Amino acid sequence: MESTVRGTIEMTAAMTIVGTIGWFVVMSGQPVMDVVFWRCAFGAVALLITCAALGLLRGRLTLRIVAIAALGGAAIVINWLLLFSAFSRASISIATAVYNTQPFMLVGFGALFFGERLTLAKLTWLGIAFAGMLLIVQTGPDAGVGSGITGTDYVIGIVMALGAAFFWAVAAIVAKKLKGTPPHLIALIQVCVGVVMLAPFANLSHLPADAWSWAMLATLGVVHTGLVYILMYAAIQKLPTHLQGSLSFIYPVVAILVDVMAFGHRLHPAQLVGAAAILIAAAGMNLGWTLWRAKSPAESPQAVK
Hints:
By secondary structure, the chain is mainly α. Helices cover 73% and strands 0% of the residues. It starts with a helix and ends in an 18-residue tail after the last helix.
């Protein structure tokens, strides 16, 4: 019980921290490409220290592990680029809600590449999430009073958030090939890949000139990447899957609250309903909820004499 309580605290802390990431991205005042580059750079330092302290750098790396983790790292970096770009186009709230279609991307991959069966319950949750998506898209950006978001930007932001969810699912599928590899080590390889990928495109000739921007970027790397990975993976070792899934929904709730409190973005009622539909459907998919009660043997037609 003590282990479960500790894991719950760790997972809650990790998801709460992740929920604030949009604020740090926006307040850094830097182009998205630079934000992701420095997140990877600072994150690499934090994770390298962690892996060295845990003795994970000795005798664990093989060419296969590095190659597979690097592939997942490329997907993770693209995921960050798309999600962070979506924040300024569709608002943090909407982008985060749409981003939480990740479980449905995973289900689609499972059906296409691993022959996993699509059950009626999964299809039902998918339909509810899709309905929520339609509500969000059709409402338009005018719900964000004073946001300055145009209709075209809004749609592009939603598409970017969907793309981010897609690449997150790709990274999750790739990670399945690394079962048994310490997750901190996987994360270290991934952020190192991000540094190499983005270095040619980051604006390194004109670095941030103020301490505030550096503080925001360092926090994204050290706290939102290094510390979050440590907390999250420590919690995963202690918690049952259903509790992990439940606590993961702290992230979108915190993100929406931050968007409302920090930036004054108010969602239109239809957008609220759409976001709630997506989050409830994602929770139902993750936690295996059903919308109907299975008939008992006594209630089945064959049982009637």
